[in-house]
Specification:
- The chain contains 10 helices and no strands.
- By secondary structure, the chain is mainly alpha-helical.
- The chain has a single domain, classed as Glycerol uptake facilitator protein (Up-down Bundle).
- The N and C termini lie far apart (42 Å).
- The relative contact order is 0.18.
């Protein structure tokens, strides 16, 4: 149970802080309103740092992301038998984190009129809606993340406390360099579980969950993870 709870709590903190900064920037009458993309990117990177530090103390592999778990399993660094429990922990943690963001910013949801901003607190959306480009954006961003994680992680697929800063810096540069097209979910649990919470929670004057787009931040990261493993194998496991 300790790895399961570590992964759950780490992902919960990731979403609490990561989606929390989005709420701080896009919701009305917050101290950080309109602080901008750089603030969001930096805070998301630090959210990854906190999540990895906390989860690694509980014997978790500190993946916090189904795409990372999937990539580690495909690469042979993580047992397939543990993939399901890890993804379940990540999804539950992400849902709880999204719930706490809603609780923390409850009065600001009430005074914010923009339904798109309220949805953006929970999940990603494209700046320009173009299915192929949006899919490739999520796949490319996750490719960078997982390829870096494969180099940073131990032979057992662990991303421990000593690896928290390098992973955070990778997430930071992905956000700053590649995140402006789709909002860089690069994590199926980060997008899907909070999107479900947006649908469930009693948020005043909310819009639909943009479910026609919701598959892209789930499937795109998994494809990006698989491509990262393929390159990793080609470079490091080729004969000679």
């Amino acid at each position: 149970m300790k790895p399961f709870l570590g992964e759950l709590i780490g992902t919960m903190l990731l979403i609490l802080l990561g989606n929390g900064v989005v709420a701080n920037v896009v919701l009305q009458r917050t101290k950080g309103h309109n602080a901008g993309w750089i603030v969001i990117s930096f805070a998301w990177a630090m959210a990854v740092f906190v999540g990895v530090i906390i989860s690694s103390a509980s014997e978790s592999k500190s993946h916090l992301n189904p795409a990372v778990t999937f990539g580690m399993a495909v690469a042979g660094k993580f047992p397939w038998a543990d993939v399901g429990p890890y993804i379940l922990a990540q999804m539950i943690g992400a849902a709880i984190g999204a719930f706490f963001v809603w609780v923390h910013y409850l009065p600001h949801f009430a005074v914010t009129e923009d339904a798109n901003a309220k949805l953006a607190v929970f999940c990603t959306g494209p700046a320009i809606r173009h299915t192929v480009s949006n899919f490739l954006g999520e796949a490319i961003g996750t490719f960078v993340l997982v390829y870096a994680a494969l180099h940073i992680s131990s032979a057992a697929g662990t991303i421990g406390s000593l690896d928290a800063l390098p992973i955070a810096l990778v997430v930071l540069v992905i956000g700053l360099a590649l995140g402006g097209t789709t909002g860089y979910a690069i994590n199926p649990a980060r997008d899907l579980a909070p999107r479900i919470m947006h649908a469930i929670l009693p948020i005043p004057n909310k819009r639909d969950g943009d479910w026609g787009y919701a598959w892209i931040p789930v499937v795109g990261p998994l494809v990006g993870a698989a491509l990262a493993v393929a390159l990793y194998w080609a470079v490091f496991q080729m004969p000679g």
